[in-house]
Amino acid sequence: EGVTYSLLPRPCRVLVLLNPQSGTGRALQLFHSHVQPMLTEANIAFTVFVTERPNHAHDFVQNGDLSSWNALVVMAGDGLMFEVVNGLMERQDWESALKKPLCILPGGSGNALAASINHYAGNEPAIREELLTNCTYILCKGLHTPMDLVSLRTASGKRLFSFLSFGWGFISDVDITSERYRKLGNARFTMGTVQCLAKLEVYKGRLSYLPVGETSASSSPYSEQSSSSGQSGHHTCYRNGHPSHILPQTVPGVSHVPEGTWPEDSLLVPFNQPVPKHWTVEPEEEFVSIFAIYQSHLGADYVMASKAKLHDGSMHLFYLKAGVSRTALLKLFLAIQKGTHMDLNCPQLRYIPVRAFRIEPFVAAGLMTVDGEMLPCEPVQGQVQNQLCRIIGG
Ligand code: ADP
Ligand code: MG
Q1: Which terminus of the chain has a lower count of CB atoms within 10 Å, N or C?
Q2: What's the gap in Å between 236 CA and the centre of ligand 1?
């Protein structure tokens, strides 16, 4: 279907950004035992950059000279890839920097991108060392292809780029709650789910989205307004009249790059304007969870959107309306492990592929996550940016 693959040159040289703390804390050991021998065999030279703190990889990728490497390899969880993607976007030369292929080797406890790439490659589901070996083999093959990113904007003026997911409510709560069980590896999500099920919360807000296939009469009448909303203004007047509290930042706010040089969010309008008329505004205003995922997997053994592709130009929006019982929620959670959750016909669960969305919480409650990293709860909107970066896979 017109997918273009390119090949890494041989011999080639890659930079491996490795978080020694991710997952069960064995990433460096696993690199030496499982990855290094295969890279040597494939004539791929490497330099290992071991991170010493959060944002270390971000800062290096944002400011460093990357010209010596043919690809940037992340050996960690999805959190470190999030740092790398945003670090690249914050470079003055972001557009050419994004042409450098990225690669994920699962070293964390949240390995959704690695599991998705393993799935797209046609491999059987795999976890732990088997998934790592599969992904290392994919790196050795060296095929790279475009990947969509999602451009996210918060009401407090942040703009972030996301490759995996955006969520609010139950699933995000599980993601963050489970971080204390990181040492359990993939099993951390089971522990987190059990804990979050006990205090099943309802979150109030407005969800709006632009379904895939919905075309407006004129293609981008809003691009002017949207590109003028780039300053870090604190919008306090939301349509629903419930300004959210500005909580401490937990992910880096994007800076340094003049807004005008970034890809335009042609589908979005500023928060102080209602969403465009051809969007859908969900009448339900009480949710257990809202989750937009752009890859197939939510974790190594959680298949949320099995039809997702690296560049399908869409986000897969799932939302769970209030009224779902704990038992039904547990059944859904178990079904996601096999990707059969939609077969349960749960009346509160909705799925729709979208190109853009907006979430406006009425009060700042519950956690928001971007690619599994925590974000303060506030109004957020986002849209797909087609094929913005490149990833090794295939
Ligand atoms: P996991 O899948 O286990 O969550 P990640 O690679 O996603 O592993 O990393 C989790 C968090 O650790 C990320 O937010 C990242 O910024 C942070 N981090 C990166 N390097 C380090 C380090 N050396 N020490 C502590 N935290 C780090
Ligand atoms: Mg993580």
Answers
A1: N
A2: 33
The answer, yes or no, to whether any atom of ligand 1 lies below 6 A from the CB of 178, is no
Is residue 159 a contact partner of residue 254, using CB atoms and an 8 Å limit?
yes
- Render pLDDT for 118-131 as a digit per residue (tens, 0 to 9): 999 999 999 999 99
Cβ atoms 210, 220 nearer than 8 A: no
- Count of residues making up the chain: 394
User: Is 312 marked active-site?
Assistant: no
Cβ neighbours around 254 below 10 Å, total? 20
Contact 303, 119 (CB under 8 A): yes
Looking at residue 2, its pLDDT comes to 61
Residue nearest to atom 14 of ligand 1 (CA): 79
CATH number of 152-389, picked from 3.20.20.140, 2.60.200.40, 3.40.50.300, 3.30.70.20: 2.60.200.40
What is the complex's ipTM, to 2 decimals? Answer: 0.97
The structural domains of the chain, with segments of one domain joined by +, span 6-147, 152-389
| CATH of segment(s) 6-147 | 3.40.50.10330
Backbone angles phi, psi at 321, to 5 degrees: -80, 155
Residue 189, Ramachandran bin (φ over 0: left; ψ between -120 and 50: alpha; else beta) = alpha
